[in-house]
Every structure is written in structure tokens, then in C-alpha cells.
Write a structure and sequence with these properties.
Layout: E1 4-12, H1 16-31, E2 35-41, E3 45-53, H2 55-61
Antiparallel strand pairs: 1-3, 2-3
């Protein structure tokens, strides 16, 4: 059975360049196998919820 691990990231966004930093951070996480499930805008920025398949599952199934 597949299992997943989850992470939560907060991005404070005040200026346009903050979106570039957010994009860069999400691309780095994507390269590690993380996938954004959802993102929520708040008064002070964005909260993103991520998931990826647990590495322990891959080892156990081999």
C-alpha cells in the first residue's frame, strides 16, 4: 500500500519578487518529489500543503 508524507510551507508575499522566491522554493521541493496539494491565500501570504510518496514504502515493496 502506498503511504504519503506531508509538509506545510508558509510564504510571506509583499512584493512581486516574493513570488519569484516562492516559485523557486516550490520548484526545489518538486525536484525532491513533493507535490502541492493546495495553497491558501491569507492576510500575510500563502500557506501551501504538499505531499509525496513515503520513501519507506518504496523500500518495503522491493
Amino acid at each position: 500500500m502506498k503511504t504519503f508524507e506531508y509538509d506545510i510551507l508558509f510564504f510571506q508575499v509583499k512584493k512581486q519578487k516574493d513570488y519569484d522566491a516562492m516559485r523557486s522554493a516550490l520548484n526545489e521541493r518538486g525536484a525532491e518529489g513533493w507535490e502541492v496539494i493546495t495553497a491558501e491565500a491569507g492576510d500575510y501570504g500563502y500557506i501551501t500543503f504538499l505531499k509525496r510518496e513515503s520513501l519507506a514504502t518504496n523500500v518495503a515493496s522491493e
